[in-house]
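Q: What structure does this chain adopt?
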Amino acid sequence: MKLLSCADKLANIRDIINDHERQGKSFWNKFNATRNDQAWYYNSMIESIAFGDELITDMPAFKEFKKCVKGIFGEQDP
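A:
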C-alpha cells in the first residue's frame, strides 16, 4: 500500500514540477492551499510513507519522490 501511495504522490509532484517550470511563481496561485501548506503536505507524506513496518525507503520510487519534494520545496523542518 505504501508503494502505491508513493507512486501516486510521485506522479503528482512530477506534475507540479513540470507545471511550475512552465508557469513560474504564478503557478502556485491555482491552488486553494499555499505553497507552504503544499510543502508541509508533501513533506508529511515523506515521513508517513517512511514510517512503519513496510519500509520502502530503499526503493527507487521513494528516493525519487523524496528528491522531487526537496527539489521543488527545499529542505523543511519536520
